[in-house]
Amino acid sequence: MNYAKQRLLWALVLTGLILTVEIAGGFWTRSLALLSDASHVFLDFLALGMSYLALRLASLPPDDRHTYGFHRLQVLAALANGATLLLVVFGILREAWERLRNPEVVLAGPMLLVATVGLGANLLAAILLREHDHGDLNVRSAFLHVLGDALSSVGVIAGGLVMLWTGWFWVDPLIGALIGIVILVGAGRVLREATHILLEGIPAGLNASKVAEAILQVPGVHGVHDLHIWTIGPNYTALSAHIVLADQALSQAQKIMEEVKHSLASKFGIEHTTLQVECESCGQEGIMCVGLNHAHQASIGNRRRNSGDSGGIGHS
Question: Which of 315, 247, 250, 308 is nearest to 282 (CA)?
Fold first, then answer.
């Protein structure tokens, strides 16, 4: 963990230097493409910062006022960053349109120099992250962000070469607009994912029906309903459900619940599980038991049982 944090911190410092150089270079050379690339670097800088913050916050214990810890801070930051980037993209596209109509002279030589320095620093940051991306989703995500920015720098360099050889200065706003569109897609994805988490939608890659089926495969489980799956923060998934068992000793029910938790952790990576045990089915025909009070629930019971007394045991 400490090694990953060190790598992320070095990559964050390098990306911050790239951002500073490209902003200064963009204003110096009057290159919209370079300023657009700086905006892309800014997006990566924020992504790296959130990845680093995730590793830092993961070691902080919850307190009496924040029983889940501080994982949602990253989601709120992502939401704010995505909204800010939409404004940045609007400015880039507006300026690109004006420059396409009235191209400005760009200092292609210095622009190439700045873009090349940025590319080199991006590649170095990518190497730092690549050496430790295995098994760590945060570092892997940061690596992909930096790699994408390196490819963006290649586009700026190509545009600079075209302007240097041909004098076609309209290429600069064209490349700037293309990078702006890339940023728009990235910002939209960030906003969509952050909003989905805040709405407590089911995490990407999980299917509620398949999770319910996995629970039903545990010996002793006769049904499951009121199943809820949501994301607390990056790499932190929670689940709550009611499971139906035969009338039996509490110690035996405890063993079944432990098997359910182990199955969910090994198959789906769900580590935070809260289960309530019931001694009767949810009283619905067929195998589907539909709950009424949650927007993203999947509820399945695989047996119809006779009515009787019910009891519940909370477990997490």
Answer: 308
Is 203 within a domain?
A: no
- Host domain of residue 26: 2-198
* pLDDT higher than 90, residue 281: no
Claim to verify: residue 40 and residue 141 sit in the same structural domain: yes
CATH number at 212 reads 3.30.70.1350
Using the CB atoms, write b or e for 56-75: b if 16+ within 10 Å. ebbeeeeeeeeeebebbebb
**Cβ(11)–Cβ(130) below 8 Å:** no
For the chain, the average pLDDT equals 79
Count Cβ atoms within 10 A of the Cβ of residue 308 and give its class: 0-12 exposed, 13-18 middle, 19 or more buried.
exposed
Domain membership of residue 49 (yes or no) is: yes
**Are 300 and 225 a contacting pair, CB within 8 Å?**
yes
183 closest CA partner among 22, 49, 40: 40
Give the mean model confidence (pLDDT) for residues 85-93. Answer: 83
Question: How far is 40 from 50, CA to CA, in rounded Å?
Answer: 16
pLDDT score at 182: 83
How many other CB atoms sit within 10 Å of the CB of residue 186? 19
> Which range scores top for mean pLDDT: 42-51, 132-141, 182-191, 207-216?
207-216
Per-residue pLDDT tens digits for 37-66: 888 788 778 878 877 877 777 667 788 888
